[in-house]
Amino acid sequence: MARLRIGEILIEQGYITQDQLQTAIDAQKQEGGLIGEILIKMGIITEDDMTSALGTQLGIPFYSSDTPEMLRPKEDQDLDKILPADFAKKNTVLPLSKTLNSLTCAVADPLDLLMLDNLRRITECEINLVIAAASALQKAINEFYFGGSSTKDGGRTSLLGAAVESSFERADDDDFIAPVKNDSSSADLSIDRLMEKASEAPVIKLVDLIIRQAIDERASDIHIEPFDNTLHLRYRIDGGLIDIPPPAPHLHLPIVSRIKILAKLDIAEKRLPQDGALSAKLENRKVDIRVSTVPTVWGEKVVMRILDKDAVPLQLTNLGFNTKQVEQLKKALGSPYGLFFVTGPTGSGKSTSLYAAVNETLDPTKNIMTAEDPVEYRLEGINQVSVKTEIGLTFAVALKAFLRQDPDVIMVGETRDLETASICVRAALTGHFVLSTLHTNDSPSAITRLVDIGVPNYLLTPSLVMILAQRLAKRICPKCKEPYEPDPAQHGDYKFNADLIYRPKGCSECNNVGYKGRCVVGEVLEIDDDIRKLIGDGASHAQLKDCARKNGMLTLFESGLKLVEQGTTSYEEVCRISLE
Known about the structure:
This protein is α/β, with parallel strands linked by helices. The chain has helices at 6-12, 18-31, 35-41, 47-58, 79-82, 85-91, 113-123, 134-146, 191-198, 201-216, 252-262, 323-333, 350-360, 395-402, 418-429, 443-452, 457-463, 529-536, 541-550, 556-565, 571-577; strands at 93-99, 102-107, 126-131, 221-227, 230-237, 240-244, 274-282, 285-296, 299-307, 338-343, 368-372, 383-386, 409-412, 433-438, 464-476, 482-484, 501-503, 515-526. The longest helix is centred in the middle third of the chain and has 16 residues, at 201-216.
Protein backbone atom coordinates (compact mmCIF):
# COMPACT_ATOMS: atom_id res chain seq x y z
CA MET A 1 0.00 0.00 0.00
CA ALA A 2 1.35 3.43 -1.00
CA ARG A 3 2.28 5.82 1.76
CA LEU A 4 0.44 9.04 2.44
CA ARG A 5 1.38 12.14 0.51
CA ILE A 6 3.13 14.96 2.31
CA GLY A 7 -0.01 17.08 2.24
CA GLU A 8 -1.99 14.27 3.83
CA ILE A 9 0.68 13.73 6.49
CA LEU A 10 0.70 17.44 7.36
CA ILE A 11 -3.09 17.36 7.76
CA GLU A 12 -2.94 14.14 9.83
CA GLN A 13 -0.31 15.64 12.13
CA GLY A 14 -2.39 18.81 12.59
CA TYR A 15 0.03 21.21 10.91
CA ILE A 16 -2.41 22.36 8.20
CA THR A 17 -6.07 22.14 7.24
CA GLN A 18 -7.56 20.82 4.00
CA ASP A 19 -8.37 24.39 2.95
CA GLN A 20 -4.77 25.50 3.52
CA LEU A 21 -3.51 22.56 1.48
CA GLN A 22 -5.88 23.47 -1.35
CA THR A 23 -4.68 27.08 -1.24
CA ALA A 24 -1.07 25.86 -1.56
CA ILE A 25 -2.01 23.51 -4.42
CA ASP A 26 -3.65 26.43 -6.26
CA ALA A 27 -0.50 28.50 -5.74
CA GLN A 28 1.63 25.61 -7.00
CA LYS A 29 -0.39 25.43 -10.22
CA GLN A 30 0.33 29.10 -10.81
CA GLU A 31 3.96 29.31 -9.69
CA GLY A 32 5.27 25.72 -9.68
CA GLY A 33 7.60 24.42 -7.00
CA LEU A 34 7.16 21.88 -4.22
CA ILE A 35 4.11 21.99 -1.97
CA GLY A 36 6.20 22.01 1.22
CA GLU A 37 8.27 24.96 0.06
CA ILE A 38 5.07 26.87 -0.81
CA LEU A 39 3.53 26.19 2.59
CA ILE A 40 6.68 27.46 4.31
CA LYS A 41 6.76 30.61 2.15
CA MET A 42 3.10 31.25 2.99
CA GLY A 43 3.97 31.03 6.70
CA ILE A 44 1.51 28.18 7.24
CA ILE A 45 4.15 25.73 8.49
CA THR A 46 7.75 25.93 9.68
CA GLU A 47 10.76 24.19 8.23
CA ASP A 48 10.67 21.87 11.26
CA ASP A 49 7.03 20.97 10.53
CA MET A 50 7.89 20.04 6.96
CA THR A 51 11.00 18.08 7.92
CA SER A 52 9.04 16.19 10.56
CA ALA A 53 6.43 15.18 7.99
CA LEU A 54 9.16 14.15 5.55
CA GLY A 55 10.77 12.03 8.24
CA THR A 56 7.43 10.35 8.85
CA GLN A 57 7.02 9.67 5.14
CA LEU A 58 10.52 8.23 4.71
CA GLY A 59 10.56 6.37 8.01
CA ILE A 60 13.60 8.31 9.25
CA PRO A 61 13.83 9.69 12.83
CA PHE A 62 13.34 13.46 13.01
CA TYR A 63 15.34 15.72 15.33
CA SER A 64 13.61 19.03 16.08
CA SER A 65 15.23 22.47 16.29
CA ASP A 66 13.53 22.80 19.67
CA THR A 67 15.84 20.11 21.06
CA PRO A 68 19.31 21.34 20.07
CA GLU A 69 20.91 18.83 22.45
CA MET A 70 19.81 16.09 20.02
CA LEU A 71 22.06 17.67 17.39
CA ARG A 72 25.07 17.80 19.71
CA PRO A 73 27.71 15.22 18.67
CA LYS A 74 29.09 12.90 21.33
CA GLU A 75 32.38 13.94 22.83
CA ASP A 76 35.60 11.92 22.93
CA GLN A 77 34.78 10.03 19.72
CA ASP A 78 36.92 12.19 17.37
CA LEU A 79 33.91 12.68 15.12
CA ASP A 80 35.47 15.82 13.61
CA LYS A 81 38.35 13.65 12.41
CA ILE A 82 36.09 10.91 11.07
CA LEU A 83 34.16 13.44 8.94
CA PRO A 84 36.02 16.56 7.72
CA ALA A 85 34.45 19.94 8.34
CA ASP A 86 34.41 20.97 4.68
CA PHE A 87 32.41 17.89 3.69
CA ALA A 88 30.00 18.37 6.59
CA LYS A 89 29.47 22.06 5.76
CA LYS A 90 29.09 21.55 2.02
CA ASN A 91 26.66 18.64 2.30
CA THR A 92 24.78 19.68 5.49
CA VAL A 93 25.58 16.47 7.35
CA LEU A 94 26.57 16.17 11.00
CA PRO A 95 28.10 13.08 12.69
CA LEU A 96 26.36 12.47 16.01
CA SER A 97 27.77 9.24 17.43
CA LYS A 98 29.74 6.13 16.53
CA THR A 99 29.18 2.60 17.76
CA LEU A 100 31.65 0.01 16.44
CA ASN A 101 31.47 0.49 12.65
CA SER A 102 28.11 2.28 12.68
CA LEU A 103 28.02 6.07 12.39
CA THR A 104 24.82 8.00 13.11
CA CYS A 105 24.52 11.18 11.05
CA ALA A 106 21.93 13.93 10.81
CA VAL A 107 21.19 15.02 7.23
CA ALA A 108 18.90 17.49 5.50
CA ASP A 109 18.65 15.51 2.24
CA PRO A 110 18.36 11.73 2.78
CA LEU A 111 17.81 11.11 -0.94
CA ASP A 112 21.20 12.50 -2.05
CA LEU A 113 22.60 9.15 -3.19
CA LEU A 114 26.05 10.36 -4.19
CA MET A 115 26.51 12.26 -0.94
CA LEU A 116 25.60 9.16 1.06
CA ASP A 117 28.01 7.04 -0.97
CA ASN A 118 30.81 9.57 -0.42
CA LEU A 119 29.90 9.68 3.27
CA ARG A 120 30.36 5.91 3.54
CA ARG A 121 33.66 6.01 1.68
CA ILE A 122 35.10 8.91 3.66
CA THR A 123 34.09 7.58 7.07
CA GLU A 124 34.51 3.86 6.18
CA CYS A 125 31.39 3.24 8.30
CA GLU A 126 27.85 2.01 7.90
CA ILE A 127 25.56 5.03 8.11
CA ASN A 128 22.43 5.42 10.23
CA LEU A 129 20.39 8.45 9.24
CA VAL A 130 18.29 10.93 11.15
CA ILE A 131 16.70 13.96 9.50
CA ALA A 132 16.75 17.58 10.66
CA ALA A 133 15.96 20.98 9.20
CA ALA A 134 18.81 22.42 7.14
CA SER A 135 18.98 25.66 9.16
CA ALA A 136 19.20 23.77 12.46
CA LEU A 137 21.86 21.47 11.03
CA GLN A 138 23.97 24.33 9.72
CA LYS A 139 23.87 25.98 13.13
CA ALA A 140 24.88 22.72 14.83
CA ILE A 141 27.68 22.16 12.28
CA ASN A 142 29.04 25.67 12.86
CA GLU A 143 29.03 25.14 16.64
CA PHE A 144 30.68 21.72 16.42
CA TYR A 145 33.38 22.44 13.86
CA PHE A 146 33.86 26.19 14.08
CA GLY A 147 32.91 27.06 17.64
CA GLY A 148 29.72 28.81 16.62
CA SER A 149 31.12 30.91 13.73
CA SER A 150 29.14 30.95 10.52
CA THR A 151 30.02 31.39 6.89
CA LYS A 152 28.04 32.88 4.06
CA ASP A 153 28.59 30.00 1.68
CA GLY A 154 28.99 26.26 1.86
CA GLY A 155 26.29 23.88 2.81
CA ARG A 156 23.47 22.48 0.78
CA THR A 157 20.02 23.96 0.95
CA SER A 158 17.13 22.00 2.33
CA LEU A 159 15.56 19.09 0.52
CA LEU A 160 12.51 21.36 0.24
CA GLY A 161 14.30 24.18 -1.52
CA ALA A 162 17.13 24.59 -3.96
CA ALA A 163 18.78 21.21 -3.59
CA VAL A 164 17.59 20.55 -7.10
CA GLU A 165 17.99 23.65 -9.27
CA SER A 166 17.83 22.11 -12.72
CA SER A 167 15.17 23.33 -15.10
CA PHE A 168 13.55 20.02 -15.97
CA GLU A 169 9.81 20.34 -16.38
CA ARG A 170 7.87 19.50 -13.21
CA ALA A 171 4.40 18.05 -12.81
CA ASP A 172 1.80 19.73 -10.63
CA ASP A 173 2.22 17.30 -7.74
CA ASP A 174 1.00 18.36 -4.33
CA ASP A 175 3.56 16.50 -2.29
CA PHE A 176 6.90 14.78 -2.03
CA ILE A 177 6.18 11.05 -2.15
CA ALA A 178 8.77 8.68 -0.76
CA PRO A 179 9.90 5.79 -2.99
CA VAL A 180 8.02 2.73 -1.74
CA LYS A 181 7.84 -0.84 -2.94
CA ASN A 182 4.86 -1.72 -5.10
CA ASP A 183 2.88 -4.80 -4.13
CA SER A 184 2.34 -5.67 -7.80
CA SER A 185 5.01 -6.19 -10.42
CA SER A 186 6.18 -2.98 -12.07
CA ALA A 187 5.89 -4.71 -15.43
CA ASP A 188 2.11 -4.79 -15.01
CA LEU A 189 1.75 -1.03 -14.62
CA SER A 190 -0.53 0.59 -17.19
CA ILE A 191 0.61 3.53 -19.31
CA ASP A 192 -1.60 5.89 -17.28
CA ARG A 193 -0.06 4.55 -14.07
CA LEU A 194 3.44 4.91 -15.49
CA MET A 195 2.74 8.52 -16.41
CA GLU A 196 1.45 9.08 -12.88
CA LYS A 197 4.47 7.40 -11.26
CA ALA A 198 6.89 9.27 -13.53
CA SER A 199 5.37 12.56 -12.35
CA GLU A 200 5.71 11.80 -8.64
CA ALA A 201 8.07 14.12 -6.82
CA PRO A 202 10.62 11.50 -5.66
CA VAL A 203 11.05 10.24 -9.22
CA ILE A 204 11.45 13.78 -10.51
CA LYS A 205 14.01 14.48 -7.80
CA LEU A 206 15.88 11.22 -8.35
CA VAL A 207 16.25 11.81 -12.09
CA ASP A 208 17.35 15.40 -11.43
CA LEU A 209 19.90 14.24 -8.85
CA ILE A 210 21.26 11.45 -11.04
CA ILE A 211 21.91 13.93 -13.86
CA ARG A 212 23.15 16.78 -11.67
CA GLN A 213 25.59 14.56 -9.77
CA ALA A 214 26.88 13.06 -13.02
CA ILE A 215 27.64 16.56 -14.28
CA ASP A 216 29.30 17.52 -10.98
CA GLU A 217 31.45 14.37 -11.16
CA ARG A 218 32.58 15.22 -14.75
CA ALA A 219 30.86 12.12 -16.13
CA SER A 220 30.44 11.80 -19.89
CA ASP A 221 27.72 9.13 -19.74
CA ILE A 222 25.08 7.79 -17.35
CA HIS A 223 24.12 4.10 -17.54
CA ILE A 224 20.88 2.89 -15.92
CA GLU A 225 20.85 -0.91 -16.22
CA PRO A 226 18.16 -3.34 -14.98
CA PHE A 227 19.04 -6.88 -13.93
CA ASP A 228 17.23 -9.65 -12.04
CA ASN A 229 15.88 -7.91 -8.90
CA THR A 230 18.61 -5.26 -9.06
CA LEU A 231 19.19 -1.92 -10.72
CA HIS A 232 22.68 -0.72 -11.60
CA LEU A 233 23.67 2.95 -11.93
CA ARG A 234 27.06 3.75 -13.43
CA TYR A 235 28.84 6.94 -14.50
CA ARG A 236 31.58 6.99 -17.13
CA ILE A 237 34.32 9.17 -15.67
CA ASP A 238 37.68 9.63 -17.41
CA GLY A 239 36.85 6.80 -19.80
CA GLY A 240 35.91 4.18 -17.19
CA LEU A 241 32.55 3.16 -15.74
CA ILE A 242 32.16 3.76 -12.00
CA ASP A 243 29.41 2.11 -9.91
CA ILE A 244 27.14 4.55 -8.05
CA PRO A 245 24.67 3.49 -5.31
CA PRO A 246 21.49 2.88 -7.32
CA PRO A 247 17.84 3.62 -6.58
CA ALA A 248 15.59 0.75 -5.50
CA PRO A 249 14.78 -1.75 -8.31
CA HIS A 250 11.05 -1.01 -8.21
CA LEU A 251 11.81 2.57 -9.32
CA HIS A 252 13.28 1.41 -12.63
CA LEU A 253 10.10 1.82 -14.70
CA PRO A 254 9.13 5.23 -13.24
CA ILE A 255 12.69 6.53 -13.73
CA VAL A 256 12.86 5.32 -17.34
CA SER A 257 9.41 6.76 -17.99
CA ARG A 258 10.43 10.12 -16.53
CA ILE A 259 13.52 10.23 -18.76
CA LYS A 260 11.43 9.27 -21.79
CA ILE A 261 8.95 12.06 -21.06
CA LEU A 262 11.78 14.60 -20.82
CA ALA A 263 13.40 13.30 -24.03
CA LYS A 264 10.04 13.24 -25.88
CA LEU A 265 10.21 9.48 -26.49
CA ASP A 266 7.31 7.03 -26.73
CA ILE A 267 6.65 5.95 -23.16
CA ALA A 268 4.56 2.98 -24.36
CA GLU A 269 7.21 1.54 -26.70
CA LYS A 270 9.46 -0.86 -24.78
CA ARG A 271 10.29 -3.38 -27.51
CA LEU A 272 12.41 -1.17 -29.81
CA PRO A 273 15.44 1.08 -29.24
CA GLN A 274 14.72 4.80 -29.10
CA ASP A 275 16.85 7.94 -29.29
CA GLY A 276 16.03 11.40 -28.03
CA ALA A 277 17.45 14.46 -26.32
CA LEU A 278 16.78 16.82 -23.45
CA SER A 279 18.36 19.92 -21.96
CA ALA A 280 19.13 20.94 -18.39
CA LYS A 281 19.88 24.41 -17.10
CA LEU A 282 22.33 24.26 -14.22
CA GLU A 283 23.14 27.57 -12.56
CA ASN A 284 24.03 29.80 -15.53
CA ARG A 285 24.79 27.18 -18.16
CA LYS A 286 22.83 24.87 -20.40
CA VAL A 287 23.76 21.21 -20.74
CA ASP A 288 22.51 19.09 -23.64
CA ILE A 289 21.90 15.38 -23.01
CA ARG A 290 21.42 12.65 -25.61
CA VAL A 291 19.23 9.75 -24.52
CA SER A 292 19.32 6.19 -25.88
CA THR A 293 17.15 3.28 -24.73
CA VAL A 294 17.46 -0.39 -25.67
CA PRO A 295 15.30 -3.34 -24.57
CA THR A 296 17.15 -6.02 -22.56
CA VAL A 297 15.86 -9.26 -21.05
CA TRP A 298 15.36 -7.47 -17.70
CA GLY A 299 13.84 -4.28 -19.08
CA GLU A 300 14.97 -1.11 -20.82
CA LYS A 301 18.52 0.10 -20.38
CA VAL A 302 19.05 3.86 -20.63
CA VAL A 303 22.29 5.60 -21.54
CA MET A 304 22.49 9.39 -21.33
CA ARG A 305 25.41 11.15 -23.03
CA ILE A 306 26.21 14.46 -21.32
CA LEU A 307 27.27 17.21 -23.72
CA ASP A 308 28.44 20.04 -21.50
CA LYS A 309 29.90 22.62 -23.87
CA ASP A 310 31.10 24.82 -21.00
CA ALA A 311 33.07 21.92 -19.51
CA VAL A 312 34.77 21.13 -22.83
CA PRO A 313 37.27 23.68 -24.17
CA LEU A 314 36.33 23.98 -27.85
CA GLN A 315 39.50 25.93 -28.62
CA LEU A 316 42.64 24.36 -30.09
CA THR A 317 44.91 26.15 -27.63
CA ASN A 318 42.97 24.69 -24.67
CA LEU A 319 42.82 21.06 -25.76
CA GLY A 320 46.36 20.14 -24.67
CA PHE A 321 48.31 19.90 -27.94
CA ASN A 322 51.90 21.11 -27.69
CA THR A 323 52.86 24.52 -29.08
CA LYS A 324 54.27 23.19 -32.36
CA GLN A 325 51.20 21.04 -33.00
CA VAL A 326 48.86 23.99 -32.39
CA GLU A 327 50.85 26.08 -34.88
CA GLN A 328 50.68 23.29 -37.46
CA LEU A 329 46.93 22.87 -36.98
CA LYS A 330 46.21 26.59 -37.23
CA LYS A 331 48.29 26.86 -40.39
CA ALA A 332 46.37 24.01 -42.02
CA LEU A 333 42.99 25.39 -40.92
CA GLY A 334 43.90 28.72 -42.50
CA SER A 335 43.99 27.10 -45.95
CA PRO A 336 41.31 28.41 -48.37
CA TYR A 337 40.49 24.87 -49.53
CA GLY A 338 41.52 21.29 -48.86
CA LEU A 339 40.70 18.20 -46.81
CA PHE A 340 41.41 17.99 -43.07
CA PHE A 341 40.87 14.69 -41.22
CA VAL A 342 40.76 13.87 -37.50
CA THR A 343 41.22 10.16 -36.85
CA GLY A 344 41.17 7.76 -33.94
CA PRO A 345 39.01 5.09 -32.30
CA THR A 346 35.69 5.73 -30.54
CA GLY A 347 36.18 7.73 -27.36
CA SER A 348 39.43 9.38 -28.44
CA GLY A 349 38.06 12.93 -28.43
CA LYS A 350 37.74 13.29 -32.22
CA SER A 351 34.45 15.21 -32.05
CA THR A 352 35.84 17.74 -29.58
CA SER A 353 38.90 18.39 -31.74
CA LEU A 354 36.73 18.62 -34.84
CA TYR A 355 34.50 21.24 -33.19
CA ALA A 356 37.58 23.16 -32.04
CA ALA A 357 38.92 23.04 -35.62
CA VAL A 358 35.60 24.35 -36.98
CA ASN A 359 35.69 27.11 -34.37
CA GLU A 360 39.13 28.07 -35.66
CA THR A 361 37.63 28.67 -39.13
CA LEU A 362 34.77 30.77 -37.75
CA ASP A 363 34.52 34.04 -39.67
CA PRO A 364 31.48 36.27 -40.28
CA THR A 365 32.45 36.44 -43.95
CA LYS A 366 32.28 32.63 -44.34
CA ASN A 367 29.36 30.23 -44.75
CA ILE A 368 30.07 27.23 -42.51
CA MET A 369 27.86 24.12 -42.73
CA THR A 370 28.02 20.84 -40.83
CA ALA A 371 26.43 17.41 -41.25
CA GLU A 372 26.46 15.45 -37.98
CA ASP A 373 24.98 12.24 -36.58
CA PRO A 374 23.68 13.70 -34.33
CA VAL A 375 24.53 17.35 -33.64
CA GLU A 376 26.42 17.26 -30.34
CA TYR A 377 27.22 20.92 -29.60
CA ARG A 378 25.17 23.77 -31.00
CA LEU A 379 27.52 26.52 -32.18
CA GLU A 380 26.57 30.13 -32.85
CA GLY A 381 27.04 31.26 -36.43
CA ILE A 382 27.28 27.75 -37.91
CA ASN A 383 24.57 25.99 -39.95
CA GLN A 384 24.28 22.51 -38.44
CA VAL A 385 22.30 19.64 -39.97
CA SER A 386 21.49 16.41 -38.12
CA VAL A 387 21.71 13.33 -40.35
CA LYS A 388 18.60 11.09 -40.37
CA THR A 389 19.34 7.89 -42.26
CA GLU A 390 15.84 6.51 -41.62
CA ILE A 391 14.36 9.16 -43.94
CA GLY A 392 17.21 9.10 -46.42
CA LEU A 393 19.14 12.11 -45.12
CA THR A 394 22.62 10.54 -45.16
CA PHE A 395 25.99 12.26 -45.02
CA ALA A 396 26.27 11.98 -48.79
CA VAL A 397 22.80 13.48 -49.38
CA ALA A 398 23.54 16.35 -46.96
CA LEU A 399 26.89 17.01 -48.65
CA LYS A 400 25.32 17.20 -52.11
CA ALA A 401 22.80 19.70 -50.77
CA PHE A 402 25.56 21.73 -49.08
CA LEU A 403 27.37 22.21 -52.37
CA ARG A 404 24.29 24.07 -53.65
CA GLN A 405 24.30 26.33 -50.56
CA ASP A 406 27.41 28.37 -51.43
CA PRO A 407 29.57 27.01 -48.56
CA ASP A 408 33.09 28.06 -47.63
CA VAL A 409 33.70 25.47 -44.89
CA ILE A 410 32.02 22.05 -44.66
CA MET A 411 32.25 19.70 -41.68
CA VAL A 412 31.18 16.08 -42.07
CA GLY A 413 30.78 14.16 -38.82
CA GLU A 414 32.25 10.93 -40.23
CA THR A 415 33.46 9.61 -43.57
CA ARG A 416 32.03 6.10 -43.66
CA ASP A 417 31.86 5.11 -47.32
CA LEU A 418 33.18 5.79 -50.80
CA GLU A 419 30.28 8.06 -51.79
CA THR A 420 30.84 10.39 -48.82
CA ALA A 421 34.64 10.31 -49.26
CA SER A 422 34.35 11.08 -52.99
CA ILE A 423 32.09 14.09 -52.40
CA CYS A 424 34.47 15.36 -49.69
CA VAL A 425 37.42 15.10 -52.06
CA ARG A 426 35.55 16.78 -54.93
CA ALA A 427 34.41 19.59 -52.62
CA ALA A 428 37.99 20.13 -51.45
CA LEU A 429 39.20 20.26 -55.05
CA THR A 430 36.58 22.81 -56.05
CA GLY A 431 37.51 25.49 -53.54
CA HIS A 432 35.95 24.37 -50.25
CA PHE A 433 37.63 23.57 -46.95
CA VAL A 434 36.31 20.21 -45.71
CA LEU A 435 36.76 18.68 -42.24
CA SER A 436 35.81 15.14 -41.29
CA THR A 437 36.73 12.12 -39.14
CA LEU A 438 37.90 8.57 -39.83
CA HIS A 439 38.28 5.49 -37.64
CA THR A 440 41.96 4.56 -38.05
CA ASN A 441 44.78 3.81 -35.62
CA ASP A 442 47.18 6.57 -36.68
CA SER A 443 47.45 9.40 -39.20
CA PRO A 444 49.26 7.54 -42.06
CA SER A 445 46.58 4.82 -41.81
CA ALA A 446 43.98 7.41 -42.82
CA ILE A 447 45.59 7.69 -46.26
CA THR A 448 45.67 3.94 -46.85
CA ARG A 449 42.09 3.70 -45.53
CA LEU A 450 40.84 6.24 -48.08
CA VAL A 451 42.63 4.38 -50.87
CA ASP A 452 41.18 1.06 -49.66
CA ILE A 453 37.58 2.32 -49.84
CA GLY A 454 38.18 3.44 -53.42
CA VAL A 455 39.40 7.05 -53.48
CA PRO A 456 41.97 7.36 -56.32
CA ASN A 457 45.50 8.36 -55.29
CA TYR A 458 45.59 11.14 -57.85
CA LEU A 459 42.61 12.83 -56.16
CA LEU A 460 44.05 12.52 -52.64
CA THR A 461 47.39 14.05 -53.64
CA PRO A 462 46.08 17.57 -54.34
CA SER A 463 43.18 17.56 -51.84
CA LEU A 464 44.68 16.44 -48.50
CA VAL A 465 46.00 19.21 -46.22
CA MET A 466 46.46 17.55 -42.82
CA ILE A 467 45.61 14.46 -40.80
CA LEU A 468 45.40 14.58 -37.00
CA ALA A 469 45.40 11.31 -35.05
CA GLN A 470 44.73 11.42 -31.33
CA ARG A 471 44.03 9.54 -28.11
CA LEU A 472 42.94 10.52 -24.61
CA ALA A 473 45.32 9.54 -21.80
CA LYS A 474 44.41 9.66 -18.13
CA ARG A 475 45.99 12.57 -16.29
CA ILE A 476 47.91 11.68 -13.10
CA CYS A 477 46.27 13.10 -9.99
CA PRO A 478 48.41 16.13 -9.00
CA LYS A 479 47.65 15.61 -5.30
CA CYS A 480 49.15 12.14 -4.96
CA LYS A 481 51.40 11.47 -7.97
CA GLU A 482 54.58 9.68 -6.92
CA PRO A 483 58.00 10.56 -8.42
CA TYR A 484 60.56 7.94 -9.33
CA GLU A 485 63.75 7.67 -11.38
CA PRO A 486 63.14 6.31 -14.89
CA ASP A 487 64.90 3.05 -15.71
CA PRO A 488 65.57 2.45 -19.44
CA ALA A 489 65.34 -1.31 -18.83
CA GLN A 490 61.72 -0.85 -17.76
CA HIS A 491 60.84 1.67 -20.46
CA GLY A 492 61.84 0.01 -23.71
CA ASP A 493 65.36 1.48 -23.59
CA TYR A 494 63.88 4.95 -23.94
CA LYS A 495 65.90 7.63 -22.16
CA PHE A 496 63.69 10.33 -20.72
CA ASN A 497 64.84 13.95 -20.75
CA ALA A 498 63.86 14.24 -17.08
CA ASP A 499 65.49 13.13 -13.85
CA LEU A 500 62.16 12.08 -12.40
CA ILE A 501 58.90 10.91 -13.89
CA TYR A 502 55.65 10.10 -12.09
CA ARG A 503 53.33 7.18 -11.46
CA PRO A 504 49.83 7.03 -9.92
CA LYS A 505 49.37 6.36 -6.23
CA GLY A 506 45.79 7.12 -5.18
CA CYS A 507 44.15 9.44 -2.65
CA SER A 508 40.71 10.70 -1.61
CA GLU A 509 40.92 13.45 -4.22
CA CYS A 510 40.94 10.92 -7.07
CA ASN A 511 38.88 8.20 -5.31
CA ASN A 512 42.07 6.16 -4.90
CA VAL A 513 42.41 5.68 -8.65
CA GLY A 514 45.60 7.71 -9.08
CA TYR A 515 44.26 9.56 -12.12
CA LYS A 516 41.93 12.53 -12.43
CA GLY A 517 40.90 13.99 -15.76
CA ARG A 518 42.35 13.27 -19.19
CA CYS A 519 44.78 14.87 -21.61
CA VAL A 520 45.02 14.67 -25.38
CA VAL A 521 47.90 12.87 -27.12
CA GLY A 522 48.26 14.01 -30.73
CA GLU A 523 50.00 12.93 -33.93
CA VAL A 524 49.99 15.66 -36.59
CA LEU A 525 50.75 14.62 -40.18
CA GLU A 526 51.36 17.59 -42.49
CA ILE A 527 50.78 16.73 -46.14
CA ASP A 528 53.95 18.18 -47.65
CA ASP A 529 55.50 17.55 -51.07
CA ASP A 530 57.31 14.40 -49.91
CA ILE A 531 54.09 12.85 -48.58
CA ARG A 532 52.18 13.88 -51.72
CA LYS A 533 54.74 12.12 -53.91
CA LEU A 534 54.46 8.95 -51.83
CA ILE A 535 50.65 9.06 -52.04
CA GLY A 536 50.85 9.41 -55.81
CA ASP A 537 53.25 6.46 -55.98
CA GLY A 538 50.90 4.28 -53.90
CA ALA A 539 53.30 4.03 -50.94
CA SER A 540 52.60 1.70 -48.04
CA HIS A 541 51.64 2.72 -44.50
CA ALA A 542 55.21 2.06 -43.29
CA GLN A 543 56.73 4.23 -46.03
CA LEU A 544 54.35 7.10 -45.28
CA LYS A 545 55.07 6.87 -41.55
CA ASP A 546 58.87 6.77 -42.00
CA CYS A 547 58.77 9.82 -44.28
CA ALA A 548 56.56 11.76 -41.86
CA ARG A 549 58.86 10.99 -38.93
CA LYS A 550 61.91 12.09 -40.93
CA ASN A 551 60.11 15.36 -41.59
CA GLY A 552 59.50 15.93 -37.85
CA MET A 553 56.21 14.23 -37.02
CA LEU A 554 55.94 12.88 -33.47
CA THR A 555 54.03 9.60 -33.31
CA LEU A 556 51.32 9.08 -30.71
CA PHE A 557 53.80 7.17 -28.55
CA GLU A 558 56.47 9.86 -28.85
CA SER A 559 53.97 12.64 -28.07
CA GLY A 560 52.82 10.64 -25.05
CA LEU A 561 56.38 10.27 -23.77
CA LYS A 562 56.73 14.06 -23.84
CA LEU A 563 53.70 14.25 -21.54
CA VAL A 564 55.33 11.67 -19.24
CA GLU A 565 58.42 13.88 -19.02
CA GLN A 566 56.19 16.83 -18.09
CA GLY A 567 54.56 14.82 -15.29
CA THR A 568 51.14 14.98 -16.97
CA THR A 569 50.58 11.24 -17.39
CA SER A 570 52.35 7.94 -16.71
CA TYR A 571 54.47 5.69 -18.92
CA GLU A 572 52.00 2.82 -18.41
CA GLU A 573 49.11 5.01 -19.60
CA VAL A 574 50.99 5.99 -22.76
CA CYS A 575 51.67 2.33 -23.49
CA ARG A 576 47.98 1.59 -23.02
CA ILE A 577 46.72 4.16 -25.53
CA SER A 578 49.40 3.78 -28.23
CA LEU A 579 50.42 0.95 -30.52
CA GLU A 580 54.21 1.11 -30.13
